[in-house]
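Q: Please design a sequence for this.
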């Protein structure tokens, strides 16, 4: 059929692209390799699986992630709809119950009459005819990675990403941990494990001596700064974690009327609060070492680990050199890329690319070209990042550094508010132009 497209991958980008394309009347064939095969970081059979609950970032209006959320919501994003329905308390962040979130997305996609779902691995791009969107994410299977490599005629860029452990709530010693949100903002949704100076220094010493998973000889480790393993941070200096993810600032302990030397925050992983994530403790430590070393944290002496942390390879292409503005491969206009494999970093950033490619596909099938949102908007700024050639292209999450600067100079106090105001106005204009 003329209006039939294929989408490879049903993560956030693939699911969003499918939703947007199908909502515009296209017939979509959606390929997902689970449960036939799982990536190293995924365990659920459903679509839109998240690695951790607090994956969707801040909800503050006047920051870049908050602006992105508003734009996705305004554009009828399925992922944002699912996030609202499956939200769990997390202070000023948007966190969800991962299982409910995946189930919600899977049911919504499966209910669409013009979507055909095929549960099998795609290993050859050219085996699928017509327009196709590759949204297989940063953990694209080896076979498909090789097919993509041959198609683009060059090597991938890559970096490594680490995830934090999850523990059972009833294994936390509440006599040693305390509830508080930083600066007492909002409900006290975080559990805090306070270190004194001796405890902290012993923890760092053992962290540095811990046995880690070794990479293969031909692999070079390139860590993304926002998700660096905690032991890698500790290698930069004893106090580096204490000024980073373990900083005690704003976490006053009312029980003893003092500010701890360092603090590990625990965040709810599900609505019921039965599991907690060790915030900032992404790691490449071997599993027995994680149990031994993280159990040294005050309050976690008897912690039951539900999921251990891990390190995995994230793969992305050199989008500025390989893709046009519609996210199509320069060398093959029938191949589009979407999501984190393009070089955006973050689940909602990946969702945004899914939204754009899904809409763009509907234009392409009509022989037209999607007018892009301006770089004054969050989604437009991300697209500009993917089209701006640099000597060393690296993944990026949404941030104000990507936005087109204001022509007028504003004082720092109101600058972000003006970015948000301008973005909302420009994005609404763009939506109306569709």
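A: Design:
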């Amino acid at each position: 059929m003329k209006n039939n497209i294929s989408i490879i991958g049903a993560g956030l980008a693939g699911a969003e692209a499918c939703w947007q394309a199908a909502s515009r009347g296209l017939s979509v064939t959606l390929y997902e390799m689970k449960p036939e095969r799982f990536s190293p970081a995924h365990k659920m059979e459903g679509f839109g699986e998240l690695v951790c609950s607090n994956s969707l970032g801040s909800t503050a209006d006047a920051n870049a992630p908050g602006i992105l959320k508003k734009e996705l919501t305004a554009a009828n994003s399925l992922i944002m709809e699912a996030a609202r329905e499956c939200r769990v308390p997390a202070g000023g962040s948007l966190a969800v119950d991962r299982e409910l979130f995946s189930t919600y997305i899977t049911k919504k996609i499966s209910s669409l009459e013009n979507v055909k779902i095929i549960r099998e691995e795609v290993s050859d791009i050219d085996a699928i005819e017509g327009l196709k969107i590759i949204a297989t994410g940063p953990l694209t299977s080896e076979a498909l990675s090789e097919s993509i490599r041959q198609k683009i005629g060059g090597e991938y860029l890559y970096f490594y990403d680490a995830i934090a452990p999850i523990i059972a709530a009833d294994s936390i010693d509440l006599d040693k941990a305390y509830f508080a949100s930083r600066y007492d903002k909002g409900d006290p949704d975080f559990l805090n494990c306070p270190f004194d100076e001796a405890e902290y220094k012993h923890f760092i010493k053992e962290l540095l001596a811990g046995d880690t998973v070794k990479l293969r000889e031909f692999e070079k480790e390139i860590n993304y700064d926002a998700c660096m393993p905690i032991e890698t941070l500790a290698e930069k200096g004893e106090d580096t974690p204490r000024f980073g993810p373990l900083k005690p600032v704003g976490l006053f302990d009312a029980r003893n009327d003092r500010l701890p030397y360092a603090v590990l925050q625990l965040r709810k992983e599900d609505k019921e609060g039965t599991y907690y994530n060790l915030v900032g403790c992404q790691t490449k430590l071997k599993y027995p070492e994680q149990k031994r070393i993280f159990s040294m944290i005050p309050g976690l002496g008897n912690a039951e680990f539900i999921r251990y942390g891990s390190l995995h390879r994230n793969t992305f292409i050199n989008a500025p050199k390989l893709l046009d503005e519609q996210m199509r491969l320069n060398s093959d206009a029938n191949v589009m890329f979407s999501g984190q494999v393009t070089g955006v970093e973050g689940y909602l950033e990946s969702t945004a690319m899914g939204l754009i490619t899904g809409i763009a596909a509907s234009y392409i099938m009509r022989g037209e070209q999607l007018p892009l949102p301006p770089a004054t908007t969050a989604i437009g700024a991300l697209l500009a990042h993917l089209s701006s050639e640099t000597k060393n292209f690296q993944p990026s999450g949404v941030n104000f550094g990507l936005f087109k600067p204001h022509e007028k100079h504003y004082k720092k106090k109101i600058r972000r508010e003006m970015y948000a105001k301008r973005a909302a106005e420009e994005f609404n204009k763009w939506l109306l132009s569709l």
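Q: Thanks. Anything notable?
A: The mean pLDDT is 89. The domain at 162-313 is CATH 2.40.30.260 (Elongation Factor Tu (Ef-tu); domain 3).
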